[in-house]
Design brief:
alpha+beta, N-terminal domain of MutM-like DNA repair proteins, Helicase, Ruva Protein, domain 3, 2 domains, 4-stranded antiparallel beta sheet, 6 helices, about 25% helix, elongated
């Protein structure tokens, strides 16, 4: 699933190419991507037609486009969703689901697996109520580092699980959590309540650093499923130190990177630089 750098890259592209344009027409080619909208495909298209996009905003991994009537178009990319800007007449993508005509260009929602989707949030221009429970991300000017540290140190869950808790901090996903923990020299199973404040701050600082670096390269992409609005893949996967590198030597100590199952996903870590907590060494 796209994480903060990927979603911010898409948001910036939408800001350049879509904001200020008026929707001429909407074509829903498959009903599933608009399943979250209670109006259904026809109602979704009718409600959006004639509206003008006035901004492109993001909280964590979630995107929305405020409309000129105070509503907002919500966009969740899911596992494979893409928002692409194309010229009219450009060949349809294989998994094109929704076409939004904007005069001399089109905004297209393409989604192979259809876990993502689009919907309209009434009155959601400033902050859609559907996203009110999502915490601020580490780049948000109002993100409170002290509060984050305090909340982490009250929890018994492992630090990686806490980094992925979008009600605690948003935008950090599986890839950047593993990378931040490697940089901080901490194993993801280290309980939050056993970490010193300086360790929590180090993890947070490293999460910011690794995501900022990814932003410079347009995000992380392992296949064609993540692209920015112009169809260009991110290249930060070339700079990863642990994620997806099982069996390869650690860039810091030379130990072999290991993989372990984690919440129906995988975690990657260096057993030398990131020793497993004692309670799990058996």
């Amino acid at each position: 699933m796209p994480e903060l750098p990927e979603v911010e890259t898409v948001r910036a592209g939408l800001d350049r190419h879509v904001v200020g344009r008026t929707v001429a027409s909407v074509t829903v080619l498959h009903p599933r991507p608009v399943r979250r909208d209670p109006r259904g495909p026809a109602g979704f298209a009718t409600e959006l037609t004639g509206r003008r996009f006035v901004a492109a905003r993001r909280r964590g991994k979630y995107l929305w486009l405020p409309l000129d009537n105070g509503d907002a178009l919500l966009a969740h990319l899911g596992m494979s969703g893409q928002l692409l800007v194309q010229l009219p007449g450009h060949p349809d993508e294989r998994h094109l689901r929704v076409r939004i005509a904007l005069g001399d260009r089109e905004l297209r929602f393409v989604d192979q697996r259809m876990f993502g989707g689009l919907s309209i949030s009434p009155g959601g221009a400033d902050l859609p109520p559907e996203m009110a429970h999502i915490a601020r991300d580490p780049f948000d000017p109002e993100f409170d580092d002290d509060r984050f540290v305090g909340r982490v140190r009250l929890r018994q869950a492992g630090i990686k699980r806490l980094l992925l808790d979008q009600t605690l901090v948003s935008g950090i996903g599986n890839i950047y959590a593993d990378e931040a923990l490697w940089r901080a020299g901490l194993h993801g199973d280290r309980p939050g309540d056993r970490l010193r404040p300086i360790q929590v701050r180090r993890v947070l600082a490293e999460a910011r650093a690794v995501m900022a670096a990814a932003l410079q390269e347009g995000g992380t992409s392992f296949d064609a499923l993540y692209v920015n609005v112009n169809g260009e893949s991110g290249y930060f996967d070339r700079s990863l130190h642990v994620y997806g590198r099982e069996g390869l030597p650690c860039d810091r100590c030379g130990g072999l990177i290991r993989r372990q199952e984690f919440m129906n996903r995988s975690s990657f870590f260096c057993p030398v630089c990131q020793p497993v907590p004692r309670k799990r060494r058996d």
